[in-house]
Amino acid sequence: MKEDRVRLALQELFGPQVGIGVTDPRSDNYLLMDSEKEAVARAVPKRLREFSAGRAAGREALSEIGFRRSAIPRSRDRTPVWPAGIVGSISHCDSLCLAAVCHIKTWRSIGLDIEGDAPLQKEAWPIILTQQEEQDLKKVPRWRRARRIKALFSIKEAVYKAQYPLTGEICDFHTLNVTIDGNRFEAMFLQDVGSFQTGFVATGGFAEVDRYVVSCCMMEDR
């Protein structure tokens, strides 16, 4: 099943100390805990299903590292509030919702992203790619370029999600220059972002699973 293949890919990318959850954001079967309901009190049905699936994936991931029935409310900046001593990330596309969590002693922050097979509009490519990435893309076969750009987009999303809990800073795609080697990546900060100074390199991995691209980033303190 696609869920099992995506789960396995994330387990290989994150390693055994990170709990993984996988749910279906199209399902109506996931129940929210009381402290989570306020965040979606006025949500349309689609958003309610996505949010509920995210919390269910989060609880599944938490159970893998020893937490049971933990609520995951939403903070004022709309990010998940994990149990004390835990860091994590949630991401979804139209047909899968993922969560990853770990103890703060394992990683200070983690970021996760999943993208489906909908192509990125060519008009968006200059927004995503740095000049160096555009040059690197010329080395990729033409038939693979759209998929590589989707991977770069996903990687930058994962890095952003990892850095945000540590900095509280919003940054754009040109803040990072990504180089890919196999299924691993290095993302260099091209400007200061909070405690991450220009030249700092974040690392992680990505995988293409069926029609999905999944990316993860793990960070330590700066």
Automatic annotation (TrEMBL):
Its cofactor is Mg(2+). GO terms for cellular component: enterobactin synthetase complex; plasma membrane. One of its GO terms (biological process) is enterobactin biosynthetic process. Mg(2+) binds at residues 113-115. CoA binds at residues 47, 55, 91-92, 113, 157, 161. Keywords: Magnesium, Metal-binding, Transferase. The keyword Secreted does not apply. Gene3D superfamilies: 4'-phosphopantetheinyl transferase domain. Residues 36-101 form the 4'-phosphopantetheinyl transferase N-terminal domain. InterPro entries: 4-PPantetheinyl_Trfase_dom (IPR008278), 4-PPantetheinyl_Trfase_dom_sf (IPR037143), 4PPT_N (IPR041354), Enbac_synth_compD-like (IPR003542). GO terms for molecular function: holo-[acyl-carrier-protein] synthase activity; magnesium ion binding. The keyword Mitochondrion does not apply. Residues 109-216 form the 4'-phosphopantetheinyl transferase domain. This is COG2977 Phosphopantetheinyl transferase component of siderophore synthetase.
